[in-house]
């Protein structure tokens, strides 16, 4: 007698025991097929067990922290607001010696008021060589022979964001200067101090350093941060210095205020040469502006998703090379970044407005 199970007909015990020649076969049961399915099940079980072991080992390694955190100095750039500000307060509570670099005196004063006396501030404009040199001399005096355990290159700017054709060289330089050249200059300036401590360089990139879907200097700057960090990581390995990248998705911070974004985009559009403007049309501009503002609005308010990654990169014995922060980054942007370019193009352009003179 046969019992049917899914696609296979399973024989009764008496039929299994009978010789192949005398067996009555009414269904499609085949011993070779059954053997193959068992092998497949076994293979998946081995794979699941291997994956489980991998994650268990990773979990165990990643929960180990470095010792003597209270003796470790960490310099963070861009502490006036957003991730930098929250990270400075978070590490201060954890007992680290935070050297918080702010762009403005007002930002520095507010941060000092909200933190312990351990935290110290310095004014730093990452686009100014003099400012970087002065801040480095100050950091050197603070850390002495211990060196600098952590450098968090967090300062950044986004605007203007617009189709590349609407922008000028100055628009690109403004963003690249802060996000990439500034980051490189600060790193080169304090690197001897980080090497002395065998510490960490934590560079804040973005998911837009892995996948691009709008124009302007921001995405090229973050791709540059990724490339710089990768080469630096390889070079510093023999010195015991670790380089980590933070790749957040969209978060609601002052970096991209909706009203400022709208005003700057309007300003950019007003300066676009007439012959270019006519190829896009007013409808394109309005839809682009609306869609970009909607995108900003999807940002998460939970900034600690990012600062927890930064803290882990600074305090774990075995930090990750890359941290993607935010569900949009993990579940959408990062998977899309691994797809073939034609799939990416389809997904990223399907809702975009059509230019007036497009094909
Ligand atoms: N928010 C997001 O969705 C998101 C996503 C991915 C990556 N990121 C990155 O995260 C980092 C922090 O940004 P955030 O979102 O926390 O925004 P934020 O609150 O605007 O923080 C950026 C900080 O950098 C400072 N800054 C700007 N220009 C500077 C300069 N020339 N020198 C020194 N500091 C300067 C800003 O000072 P002022 O406020 O005084 O201008 C501000 O304190 C940036 O690198 C950004 O690209 C952000």
TrEMBL record:
SUPFAM superfamilies: NAD(P)-binding Rossmann-fold domains. Keywords: Oxidoreductase. The keyword Oxidoreductase applies. GO terms for molecular function: oxidoreductase activity. GO terms for biological process: steroid metabolic process. Belongs to the short-chain dehydrogenases/reductases (SDR) family. PANTHER family: 17-BETA-HYDROXYSTEROID DEHYDROGENASE TYPE 6, SHORT-CHAIN DEHYDROGENASE/REDUCTASE FAMILY 9C. This is Retinol dehydrogenase 16-like. It comes from Pelusios castaneus.
């Amino acid at each position: 007698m046969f019992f049917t199970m899914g696609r296979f007909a399973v024989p009764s015990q008496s039929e299994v025991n009978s010789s192949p020649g005398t067996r009555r076969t009414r269904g499609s049961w085949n011993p070779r097929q059954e053997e193959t399915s068992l092998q497949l099940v076994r293979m998946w079980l081995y794979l699941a067990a291997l994956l489980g072991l991998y994650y268990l080992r990773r979990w165990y390694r990643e929960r180990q922290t470095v010792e003597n955190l209270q003796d470790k100095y960490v310099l963070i750039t861009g502490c006036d607001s957003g991730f930098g500000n929250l990270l400075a307060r978070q590490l201060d509570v954890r007992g680290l010696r935070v050297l918080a670099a702010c762009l403005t005196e007002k930002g520095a004063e507010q941060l000092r008021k909200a933190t312990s006396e351990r935290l110290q501030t310095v004014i730093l404009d990452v686009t100014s060589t003099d400012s970087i040199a002065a801040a480095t001399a100050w950091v050197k005096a603070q850390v002495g022979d211990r060196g600098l355990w952590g450098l968090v290159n967090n300062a950044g700017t986004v605007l203007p964001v617009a189709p590349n054709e609407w922008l000028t060289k100055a628009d690109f330089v403004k963003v690249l200067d802060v996000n990439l050249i500034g980051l490189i200059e600060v790193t080169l300036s304090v690197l001897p101090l980080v090497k002395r401590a065998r510490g960490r360089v934590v560079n804040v990139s973005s998911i837009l350093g892995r996948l691009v879907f709008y124009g302007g200097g921001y995405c090229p700057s973050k791709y540059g941060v990724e490339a710089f960090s990768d080469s630096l990581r390889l070079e510093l390995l023999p010195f015991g210095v670790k380089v980590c990248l933070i790749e957040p998705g969209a978060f609601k911070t002052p970096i991209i205020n909706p009203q400022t974004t709208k005003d700057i985009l309007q300003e950019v559009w007003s300066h676009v040469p007439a012959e270019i403007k006519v190829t896009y049309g007013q409808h394109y501009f309005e839809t682009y502006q609306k869609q970009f503002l909607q995108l900003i609005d999807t940002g998460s308010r939970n900034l600690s998703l990012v600062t927890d990654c930064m803290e882990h990169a600074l305090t774990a014995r075995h930090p990750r090379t890359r941290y993607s922060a935010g569900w949009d980054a993990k579940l959408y942007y990062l998977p899309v970044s691994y797809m073939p370019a034609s799939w990416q193009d389809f997904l990223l352009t399907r809702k975009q407005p059509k230019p007036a003179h497009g094909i």
